[in-house]
């Protein structure tokens, strides 16, 4: 997937000095980010937001290179790699934003406000109902005889959510779980969006993927269903943080807090995500309650074993 650099909106020259500019590095779906950026700009005329979007692995690699060169660019970081954000926080490279939003669940303000969850997403089992008649109900069900050759998941080198799948299920079920899936013909696609589109077309019958993306495909008419495994859907941390080197920290903080506003939380729900704020609407077609297990991202040794198993190269 090509890296994307967009400029959200064309600010008037008069408003630019008043509004300011932000740079966001993210692995979030670009269309969803654009919708949120435009809603933010409607409340903040003259603001420009530059967005670099790619898979989590590529976003982290880009920022590491900039840090090594002594020239980091983003004001805001938003991707599925809590371990890397924890690393940055330990070096004093994230700005603490006190959790002052009324009603915000304080357990999602990590490090006392160094980075925030702004909506929730889960890794689940997605099913093409035209190819699979009896859906699995647990992660272990994916090993049963009816499913070999039908399953795929994203590449954990590229997708932070897939890295969470690999780490969490390796810890809970053992790495042999993935060895058995490989023996049963599981395939690897680069990203969740690519995988979900192929699942919708019937190229696969099952996928380990993100719940919101499945709902977005269903809204387009795809014959898909979402299974939240009874042994726990994987709650993937995807927090947002303001960097310590930000040239416009007040505006960056304003963007972060906007994502917790009723308008932004409604936009999240409309696009298939669970809002993080109590009382916000739930996404259409979603269960009221989910049995979730907090993700654990795979370490480098587990990722290397996975790469060797599936013949992947970084």
From TrEMBL:
Keywords assigned: Signal
Annotated signal sequence range: 1-19
InterPro entries with a match to the protein in the record: Ferric-bd (IPR026045)
Protein name: ABC transporter substrate-binding protein
Coiled-coil stretches: none
